[in-house]
Design a protein that fits this description.
Elements (H helix, E strand, L loop, with lengths): L1 E2 L8 E4 L2 E11 L7 E8 L5 E7 L3 E4 L2 E12 L2 E6 L5 E4 L15 E7 L4 E6 L3 E9 L12 E6 L4 E5 L7 E5 L4 E6 L2
Antiparallel strand pairs: 1-6, 2-3, 2-6, 3-4, 4-5, 7-8, 7-10, 8-9, 10-11, 12-13, 12-15, 13-14, 15-16
Length: 188
């Protein structure tokens, strides 16, 4: 058990028969009345974000969440298959639990978010940045760099992303998996 004084960003709590992670919180002490805590909570099961207000000093049940290292193996009709890096045990997940499935490639290390008491997998989080090879993109025109223009490019996993004009087929690029955007070209 914890109270509102223990709130911090990233704390996982059990609330309304669901598991939530505190994204943002603010202690408020108005001139009249009692203090309260205004929070933004993200549901770990559905991904929805909701706002809620707790009276100061209210007891909240905390949830023990573990992040375990796994490696992506392959996908098929049953879903996405992962292997635990420590026990070599395999797990398969539906697409709804994977953050950005379009950037999964064989051998990629990911983290599975697991509720420690029930051993239920809540989410699969990819690393912040992944490196991928561009398999096809239109050639850029020489000298057309006055504006910050982007062109579509197809990656080795089949995903499409917008890249600057100087990126060519065969280049290795770094992608931000949270914002689905190009970051930089990587030297081979």
């Amino acid at each position: 058990m914890a109270t509102t004084a223990d709130f911090r960003n990233g704390l996982c709590i059990e609330f309304n028969n669901d598991i939530y992670q505190i994204v943002e919180f603010q202690h408020v002490k108005p001139g009249k009345g009692g203090a309260f805590v205004r929070t933004k909570l993200k549901s770990l099961t559905s991904g929805r974000i909701q706002e809620n207000t707790f009276n100061s000093g209210v007891k909240i049940k905390t949830a023990r969440i573990e992040r375990r290292p796994y490696q992506y193996l392959y996908s098929d009709d049953l879903g996405y298959h992962f292997m635990n890096n420590e026990t070599f045990e395999q797990t398969n997940l539906p697409e709804s639990l994977v953050d950005a499935p379009q950037y999964l490639k064989e051998g990629l290390n990911v983290e599975l978010v697991v509720h420690a008491e029930t051993e239920k997998v809540l989410a699969c989080e990819l690393p912040q940045f992944v490196e991928m090879e561009v398999t096809y993109t239109e050639p850029g025109l020489k000298g057309d760099t006055a504006t910050n223009t982007l062109k579509p490019a197809k990656l080795e996993t089949g995903a499409e992303i917008n890249v600057p004009l100087f990126v060519n087929t065969g280049d290795l690029i770094k992608i931000d998996t949270k914002s689905n955007s190009y970051v930089e070209r990587v030297k081979k």
